[in-house]
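User: quick one - fold this with flavin mononucleotide bound?
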Amino acid sequence: MDIHDSLHLPCGAVLKNRLAKAAMTERFTNGDLKPNKKHYNLYENWSKQGSGLLITGNVMLERSHLESAGNVVMKEAFLPELKKWAKAATSGGNHCWTQISHSGRQTSIFNNLRPSSASNVKLKKLGFFAKPRALEVNEIQELIDKYASAAELSKRAGFTGVQIHAAHGYLISQFLSPITNKRTDEWGGSLENRTRFLFEIVKVTRGKVGFQFPIGVKLNSSDFQKGGFSEEESLWVIQQLEKLGVDLLEISGGTYENAEFLLAENIRQSTKQREAYFLDFAEKVRKESAIPLMVTGGIRSLKFCNEALNENLLDVVGMARPYLLYDDFASRFLAGELTPDAFSVRTGIKAFEDMAEAGFYNLQLDRLGTGKKIDKSYTPVRSAFHLIKHEFVKALANKFAG
Ligand SMILES: Cc1cc2nc3c(=O)[nH]c(=O)nc-3n(C[C@H](O)[C@H](O)[C@H](O)COP(=O)(O)O)c2cc1C
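Assistant: Sure. Structure tokens for the protein plus flavin mononucleotide:
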């Protein structure tokens, strides 16, 4: 078994190899919130390089709940642009899935001063996030339908699957965690109640897209927060997702308050030495479930990928940042010509590290989207400030565009 081997998913779809580009928010829109040339360029380039699966950055259900002011929103009116994006992103014969998301409370004050969430628990981060209000029950039902409709729109546009984003502290994750879900109705309290939102979304989505269309889920192994969504809970959720016929489960971890998926600060050194941040958890998943498994976070060498595949620790290797450190990462990696350097973006100020990291890679995304070469010379401080300015300016553009 190696990275070049194909993978048959439960729905019958086949990934031509085991390398997946994990979701990275593109932040490319300018006031209109629809896909544009930068999306087409970037994804056509990535598609031609040979990865079996490309997962888009967050595409959002509502303009009032953006993860970034430069997100794409899933709207029927954008079908022509979504089609162009899907066509470019699958031009190399690979799969490309949209990552469907709702930010919940993780939308900045530049976008929304009164976001909604499972409950009214405020995100603590540099004053950039407002106190949310708890969703009404009828709004929860509407949102479940919106996830499913966004999946169906993705299918009509030509995307070959969807990934439901249930990780990293976004809305579904807010329902899953006892820290952010304080509800006392059937949508909160017990694990069964906290998971209802996710399971309903998967069921209704399956009803809308049919049995032959891949549905993936990105889930946290845990939130890495005391009293938050735990590993034991995550393992149970995964067993249920397998029963619901989910085609690919991607594991990650952390939230905006503790961005383990980017910074890996609380991951044990022994685990990091094995490259993948969430490999210990993957081993536990394998014991409990036969769900096809994608692991993302910290994976860098082809040798490691092939060993992990051979040892049956995972089915798909997810990689994100390496795609933004080289102009032609995937083709050289698959040919065995490249092992990405350990590249670190650090300001030395804890509260800014995730922004520096995200800002640096956002600058690279923008370069690739406009046909420029990767440039690693941006400093961490400049990268962090770039991101804050970028979000502020694009949020203004969204307001002016109405
Ligand atoms: C610039 C950037 C944007 C990201 N955007 C998303 C996103 O939209 N959705 C998501 O699930 N993860 C997102 N991530 C997290 C990645 O998918 C991945 O989980 C993380 O980078 C760890 O993988 P890596 O070590 O291979 O980079 C993003 C990461 C980066 C660097």
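One thing worth noting: The pocket of flavin mononucleotide is lined by residues 22-25, 57-58, 99, 165, 167-168, 218, 252, 261-262, 296-299, 319-321, 358, 361-362 (CB under 6 Å).
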